[in-house]
Write a structure and sequence with these properties.
- It is built from nine helices and eight strands.
- The chain has a five-stranded parallel β-sheet with strand order 2-3-1-4-8, with helices on both faces. It has a three-stranded antiparallel β-sheet with strand order 6-5-7, with no helix packed on it.
- The protein starts with a strand and ends with a helix.
- It binds BIS(adenosine)-5'-pentaphosphate.
Length: 211
Amino acid sequence: MNMIFLGAPGAGKGTQAEVVCKELNIPAISTGNMLREAVKNSTEAGLKAKSYMDAGELVPDEVVIGILKDRIAQPDAQNGFILDGFPRTVQQAEALESMGVEIDKVIEIDVPDDAIIARMSGRRVCEGCGNSYHIEYKPTKVEGICDACGAKVVQRIDDKPETVLARLKTYHEKTAPLKDYYEKRGKLVTVKGQNEISETSRLTLAAIKGE
Ligand code: AP5
């Protein structure tokens, strides 16, 4: 099954993608994680992306589409995948269509802006493997150390409150129109994000199974 997880920054797309990809045994493909990796390794794409990411703006379509195209051509993506954070513009959705990629479902995780702002200040991410935690809702077992790989967990540069506001504005202007785009194609299912991560996972899996 090919799916898109759509939602505002911090709505919980990455958290749910981690859960669902284990359950369905398909990869979760996060353009945000791939771009952060590219920045870390100072690749050509990373050098182009960094200033946009730090400001909470979208990286130009041609950079992201190129990265995504290479990733979904990999062998592990041939039996289905979750796209976490792609597409983010109507142009990116059209590019996906023109690559011949069939999308079965678009799961929108819907969380109000005020809840997002409160959540983001507590998010911490692993410098090594990119796993995401929250100091209150999903803490690491040992403070400051990733459960999965043992590397340091830190606050993302773009999780500063002023950048979170910029990311939300970008989301409403550029990405939210995709709800309409996929609704018209009969693909959109909305899950109301809950305060409990496990409850959101239960609703997300039910939406995927069409329950
Ligand atoms: P990206 O990494 O995709 O960031 P984002 O969409 O802003 O998404 P987040 O990772 O912030 O949020 P999420 O919904 O995954 O939330 P999470 O599960 O972590 O992109 C970063 C940047 O890269 C963009 O700004 C842009 O510049 C660029 N970029 C990426 N893709 C692009 C594209 N396609 N085109 C152009 N540019 C692109 O949850 C957030 C926190 O809340 C966590 O701490 C989590 O533990 C906690 N939490 C989650 N669920 C719950 C819950 N139910 N209750 C309580 N806490 C919860």
